[in-house]
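R.M. (postdoc): so does anyone remember the format we settled on? I'll just put the structure tokens first.
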């Protein structure tokens, strides 16, 4: 998990090519984001890192996917979308944790 940008990111980061299991990754991210967003209405984008945000060589999602065989390897960029940046107000910490947990539970159940 990381902050901030409100995104679920999957492999690959180093290329715009999609992994063989990308349809499964996309399905899981979509379920997670739908559950997360339905909690408080916080919008998230999702997709592979290179297309959704930018080319990023050496990220852990690629390492775990390629070297360790972990299909469900994601980076979650938490709140917010730029207003507060890395200084999220204290009153948003618990809601961020709650919506993220709801998304993770839905994704785990779907997997």
């Amino acid at each position: 998990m990381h902050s901030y940008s409100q995104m679920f990111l999957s492999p690959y980061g180093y290329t715009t090519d999609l992994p063989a299991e990308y349809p499964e990754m996309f399905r899981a991210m979509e379920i997670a984001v739908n559950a997360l967003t339905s909690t408080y209405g916080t919008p998230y984008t999702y997709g592979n890192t290179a297309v959704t945000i930018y080319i990023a060589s050496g990220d852990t999602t690629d390492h775990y996917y390629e070297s360790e065989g972990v299909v469900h390897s994601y980076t979650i960029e938490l709140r917010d979308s730029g207003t507060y940046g890395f200084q999220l107000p204290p009153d948003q910490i618990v809601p961020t944790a709650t919506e993220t947990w709801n998304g993770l539970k839905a994704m785990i159940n779907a997997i």
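R.M.: ...and that's the designed sequence above, right after the tokens. Also worth knowing: The radius of gyration is 14 Å. Strands lie at 2-3, 7-10, 45-48, 75-78.
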